[in-house]
Amino acid sequence: MKTAKDYINHSAAIVFDLDGTLMHTEPDIRQAANQALLDCGFQTLAPEQVIPNLYGPLPDILASVMQLVQAPAAAAEDIQQAYLKHYAHQAHDHSFLYPNVLALLDHLCSTGHHLAVCTNKIEGSAKQALERHGLSAYFTVVTGGDTTAHPKPHALPLLTTIAALKVKTSDCVLVGDTHVDALCASNCGIPFVFHRSGYGDNSVQQYPIAASFVDYAETRL
Q1: 20, 55 in Cβ contact below 8 A?
Q2: Are residues 46 and 85 in the same domain?
Q3: For 102-145, how does the pLDDT look when each residue is reduced to its tens digit (9 = 90+)?
Q4: Average of pLDDT values for 178-185?
Q5: How far is the first Cα of the chain from the last one, in angstroms, to the nearest whole number?
Q6: If residue 220 lies in a helix (H) or strand (E), which one and from where to where?
Q7: pTM of this prediction?
Q8: What is the pLDDT of residue 221?
Q9: Does 12 share its domain with 31?
Q10: Does residue 190 have a pLDDT over 90?
Q11: How far apart are CA 62 and CA 216, in angstroms?
Q12: Residue pLDDT, tens place only, 3-54
């Protein structure tokens, strides 16, 4: 049976999700959401309250936050604008890379693989996160949740990413951490490699998983 190491190292192109896959970003998302809620006159998330939709596009994430604190839907635009201001200002200071990510990316670049990011995070925020943590140079293509007409799990953002890489779909693999990534890969007919240490839950098991791993150390030749 092929492992995550096999799929990643023997594919010409590897597309990575960002949040929960390359980087733990929840602390910055939580802080910006809480600051936005305060700005708009609402209570903040309690420390024990889990944000349930970290894999979604920003409006969906904030909608789940608003539901948790019982903020009215009419406040959505104001909260989103406040969130964007605080998130950009934080510059991802509280986010961090998962262990051994850099070592894998160095290895893949040195062996001629094509690398890209396809995320539901706003493209500008994704690029800022990659820059802040020294990853920008590894990725020739970054596709965000607002880059195309549809976010993941729709096939369009991933197919757009693959087209920009100028490789065949059959030469690609998607590395992600939730059912959204699994379904997106399935919709595109490419293998999905599951990062088990991210934000996914058991719903990912409903979709095809080619291989999985817990630590990026497992993925290097």
Answers
A1: yes
A2: yes
A3: 999 999 999 999 999 999 999 999 999 999 999 999 999 999 99
A4: 98
A5: 16
A6: none
A7: 0.96
A8: 80
A9: no
A10: yes
A11: 30
A12: 999 999 999 999 999 999 999 999 999 999 999 999 999 999 999 999 989 9
- Residue 201 CA to residue 182 CA, distance in Å, equals 12
The answer on 79 and 107 residing in a single domain is no
Determine whether 39 is an active site residue.
no
Contact (CB, 8 A) for 143 and 157: yes
- The range of the structural domain enclosing residue 57 comes to 26-90
Structural domain count of the chain: 2
How far apart, in whole angstroms, are the C-alpha atoms of residue 129 and residue 101? 14
Query: How long, in residues, is the chain?
Result: 221
SS (H, E, C) 56-93: CCHHHHHHHHHHHHCCCHHHHHHHHHHHHHHHHHHCCC
Q: Are 62 and 84 in contact (CB under 8 A)?
A: no
**Inter-residue contact 186 to 154 (CB < 8 Å):** no
Q: CB of 48 within 8 A of CB of 15? A: no
* pLDDT above 90: residue 220: no
Supply 24's token pair.
């733990």
Separation CA 60–CA 53 (nearest Å)? 7
Residues 111, 101 within the same domain: yes
**Catalytic-labelled residue, pool 6, 17, 28, 93:** 17
